[in-house]
Design goal:
Strand content: 15-25%
Radius of gyration: 24 Å
Order of helices and strands: HHEEEHEHEEEEEHEEEHEEHHEH
Number of helices: 9
Strand order of the largest sheet: 1-2-4-3-5-15-6
Number of strands: 15
């Protein structure tokens, strides 16, 4: 078995490389499905190691490290896209160390860190190839923020007999340098909500001659809250985030349509799908009351809840605690959603939270915020955890 001392030494040798990768990727900051420069940079690193790879449409990659010895197949994942969020030149305490080169969008969720940690881990694990068994798949996923890359990535992984998966998310809700690998639900599942009520427009002076979709939408929202309170299972959390209600433009014109949107978040996927069925049923009944038609445009596939496997989570906690004493810490589940849920739904595995919170030093702004930032010191923690966990699974 590879010793902790060896892993720590190899990570220390790669720390500046990981930081440099983070700064370069942070500068590129490309939106979901458009990560062409980011992909090219990753390929430069892969080709330097001589590892085979598969391109996953449009900008995703699967890099393969085959030890030549039988053993588990482990999929390690990092997301590579940025967000349409203008970057503030300062974090919570002062100037940030690196900046997006593209005005109007930036890495405001830590994906630059995820990718750089996986690149560093890839270098170290390549050096350790002779001490490992099985196969490692390094999955660089495009478009996590919009879910545009998950279907092609999961389809590409079908050809590999994946035994387990691993991923990391840098997290503002956990103290800097801590890492959580708790078993059970970790991130919420999600259903995207959109309903359109089509009524009959008219002049504002004669509401009796119209079927006002605005009142249909109001009735729908009133009854939705009652239905959820009475029909969802007690003890099962489903949050209803209604965020948009669009109807009409002029005060003397009754509009033809009203459109309402939002999301449902849940840690029990079955309960979340039940909530969506209630959503649609209440909408149909509200439409019938007001003489409107109802549509559910552009229905998206639900994202399941992200659940860590108990056995692998226990193994990860022991392995990481062994090499980073005191780093493993519990953490409440996060209500945001993640495409890694599709990996963990199919392959048992672990999704770790890597803490960044240190507000005095400027780190702790929420994700998707213009001041989101993290200390680059945490990158070696994430890379170390990744390598140590793989060694635990694949070490001779």
């Amino acid at each position: 078995m590879v010793s902790n001392e060896t892993i720590l030494k190899l990570i220390a040798q790669q720390e500046q490389y990981i930081i440099d990768c983070r700064r370069h990727i942070h500068g590129l900051a490309e939106l979901s499905g458009q990560e062409f420069k980011t992909k090219a940079f990753i390929l430069e690193q892969v080709n330097a190691l001589g590892l085979p790879y598969e391109e996953v449409p449009t900008t995703g990659l699967i890099v393969k490290l085959d030890t030549g010895r039988p053993g588990k197949v482990v999929a390690l994942r990092a997301d590579i896209d940025a967000l349409p969020v203008p970057e503030n030149p300062d974090n919570l305490a002062g100037p940030r160390v690196c900046h997006s080169e593209h005005e109007g969008f930036c890495h405001a969720c830590g994906h630059d860190g995820h990718t750089s940690m996986l690149l560093g881990a890839m270098r170290v694990l390549t050096q350790l190839r002779d001490e490992l068994t099985g196969t490692i798949l390094f999955c660089f996923e495009e478009g996590e923020e919009t879910n545009c890359g998950i279907k092609t990535m999961m389809a590409a992984l079908e050809k590999y007999p994946v035994d387990t998966c691993w991923g990391i998310h840098i997290y503002a809700g956990l103290e800097q340098g801590k890492i959580s690998v708790d078993a059970g639900p970790r991130m919420a599942g999600c259903v995207w909500l959109k309903v359109r009520f089509k009524g009959k427009g008219g002049h504002g002076s004669r509401p009796d001659m119209a079927h006002n979709p605005l009142f249909c939408g109001v009735t729908f929202l009133d009854n939705l809250g009652v239905a959820y309170g009475q029909q969802l299972t007690a003890g099962e959390t489903v949050t209803k985030g209604i965020t948009t209600f669009h109807c009409g433009e002029a005060s003397n014109v009754i509009a033809e349509t009203a459109e309402i949107g939002g999301t449902l978040r849940f840690f029990n996927t079955a309960e979340g799908l039940k909530a969506y069925d209630i959503f649609k049923n209440v909408a149909r009944n509200a439409a019938a009351i007001h003489g409107c038609e109802v549509e559910f445009p552009a229905e998206a596939s639900p994202l399941p809840a992200l659940v860590n496997d108990k056995g692998y989570a226990t193994l990860a906690a022991q392995a990481i605690g062994d090499i980073l004493p005191g780093a493993v810490a519990p953490c409440e589940p996060w209500y945001a959603s993640e495409t890694f849920a599709h990996y963990s739904d199919k392959y048992p595995g672990v999704f770790a939270f890597l803490g960044l919170k240190n507000e005095a030093a400027g780190f702790g702004a929420p994700h998707h915020n213009e001041k989101f930032d993290f200390s680059e010191d945490i990158l070696k923690t994430g890379a170390t955890a990744t390598v140590r966990y793989v060694v635990e699974l694949l070490g001779k």
